[in-house]
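Cross-posting from the chemistry board since nobody answered there.

I work mostly on the small-molecule side, so proteins are not my area. We synthesized pyridoxal-5'-phosphate and want a rough idea of how it might sit in this target. Sequence and SMILES are below. Is it possible to get a predicted 3D structure of the two together?
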Amino acid sequence: MLDPYKIREDFPILKRKINNHPLIYFDNAATTQKPRQVIGAIREFYEKYNANVHRGVHTLSQEASELYENAHEEVAKFINADGTEEIIFVRGTTEAINLVAYAWGLRNLKGEDEVLVTLMEHHSNIVPWELLSKINGFQVRYVDVNPDGTLNYEAFGNAISEKTRIVCMSHVSNVTGAINDVKKVAKMAHEYGALVLVDGAQSVPHLPVDVKDLDVDFFAFSGHKMLGPTGIGALYGKREILMEMEPFHGGGEMIRDVTFNTITRRCSISWNDLPWKFEAGTPNICGGVGLMAAVKYLRSIGMENVKEHEETLTEHAMHRTQECGKVKIYGPRDASVKCGIIPFNVDGLSSHDVALFLDGYGIMVRSGFHCAQPLHEVFKLKSSARVSFYIYNTREEIDRFVEVLKEIERI
Amino acid sequence: MGAIEDYVARIEETCGEERDFVVVFKYDKKGEVMAKILQKAKVEKSISRIIFELTFKDVSFRLYGTGKAIFRNLKDKDELKNVLSDLLL
Ligand SMILES: Cc1ncc(COP(=O)(O)O)c(C=O)c1O
């Protein structure tokens, strides 16, 4: 069992008051707060180890390279990948998905091919495919969701065919928190010879993830949503697929040789080993070090405990919000099938009004489409407010939130 | 005469079908802004001086004690800026 009160001591920002009220941070699906351990690792890196990686024989460069490589190793272990070769550091989930779209999709998708995308995706798993389809001319097909926002597996079964080349789906919806059965979808997709790309932005931070057990081909996530710094995330890819792929960006670090032929006056290029082939230019070294500290922090708590804590908070919030007659909640209500994300509206008020009112009481929540406009269209919603919990949130914070909701209802 | 930038820190067009504008006033001008707006606009409703439901020249908006306001049903940012300059300058 996790102790949120003890955990809170590691998060300096939680001592802040906002608008004269203690900060209640319920916008964790957007980004999470950072513990001292992560802040300290970043500081220590710049104070003691800063140098470029893989570029020098000097001691500092060796030390920085070792730290950066260890960070890949830690992330690989965290999601049970087969070592560092399968972990590419990127800016975040968005860049990871774009990497797959352009390094794999550009060369492999054309004409009659189809890309299956669920209607619950974040824009970052929709827009790259739509953009690419305008270049290559393949079809993007959308898989329906059920009225409660969960994935419609029957619709998925109907949509998949021999034409499907890749299935792009989120592991956990950033709007409803619904957890998708990725393993089941991957099995179906592989039967048709399609690859599976999973957006794990909302799963890796909140539940145990084992990419081998899920048997997915690509898995993307962001460091900043799991206690790490912004500007760092990872793409997992199966080694044999990454080996076959051409690079995404070109530049230093990702090449082994660039030889100039004095007769043809052209350069011939050979790629670096995995994962560096996909990490062109000076990477976000310090971000990697910060992400490693975040992963170690989460591992010390235990991801089963993280999941259990969020489930308890979600159950409590679902129960307490029943006292608010004007509050309507969307998505599945059963806390065991979802992560700690609850979208809602208050009758007669826009989601932004709700968020502004809560802000007045130091409670930070998100409002709008949460970058998932198609799902809001399915729900026939103009927008929604969203609370999302993490390891440092408490039942008392939810109680306070419900009290303020009751005041909002009186507007 | 000043400019609305003297009072306004940020303007955010919200995402969502409503396309509201959230105006964040400069922290050190919060009191002055609230006083000016409450003098010029009509207060339709006030809740413990935390929220004011206001109208001004057919534009309805909410002003929050935190120094933020949300404007609804405006055509675009230019219309918002006109309203703000009438209210503040
Ligand atoms: C499900 C999901 N996918 C993708 C993203 C994009 O992540 P990032 O902005 O870190 O690239 C988010 C961020 O909100 C998300 O929730």
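Reply from a structural biologist on the board:
Welcome over. Reading the output above for you: The CA atoms of residues 74 and 297 of chain A lie 11 Å apart. Chain A is about 40% helix and 20% strand. Happy to explain the token format if needed.
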